[in-house]
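ingest -> validate -> predict -> emit
validate: passed (alphabet ok, no gaps, 249 aa)
predict: started
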Amino acid sequence: MVRSKVKFLDITAKEWWLSWLQMQFASPIFQAPLVTLALGVYNPAVCFETKNRRKFMGPHIVVIGGSVRPQNYTWMALSLVAEELVTQKKMDFEVIDPRELNLAKPGLESNPQMEALRKTVSEATGVILATPEYHGSVSSVMKQVIENLGFPSVLAGKPVALLGVAAGQIGAIKSLEQLRSICSHIGAIVIPYTVSVANVQKVFDAHGKCQDAGIEKRIRGVAKALMDYIEHNICPRVALEQMVRENAH
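emit:
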């Protein structure tokens, strides 16, 4: 269910996130992907409730996974990205799980969840998209999410980081090329740092733990690369615009 207002919690976002990860990966079988922080559930340390819209201090990242298959590797990889985002003190983030959304096919009438999705992404400072590679292409789930972001797309003008996983030896090269092309076409700014994980079924064990330190470092680098881009390109622009507004009064 889509929540329209932020709720205060007694624990920090970091404590909540780490406790959830511990609970999930303690299971003998990885039973569920990254739990949705859902549309409307935000970092309580930096967000507060208003009548019309959410406000936050600092950059806000939206993470979207492109797989709905149980025990899927896309969300296992995204869990590492989320862990890295938790360490960032000057930003907050939320995760959107497409399984929780009633996304319409292109051309059909919009619904409240689609509108909430567009609002959430439109308010993001940056976005991380992760897709598995199916039959040499981006997943239909990821494409459907993008189709539901409106026209013109709310991704336009936003920095986007890409992550892909695949069972084959060449990785998710084809799907990431297509996803980069799609995002660029709708006006998003795709950052250069893109990670493709090959032989993903050998990289993660049944508990969702990464078995390769080098690959784990590259996956975590997706979060850092996006934050670095925002810090060096978005934040200075926002500060300059604020200075201009103040000098105009």
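Residues 213-248 form the longest helix (36 residues).
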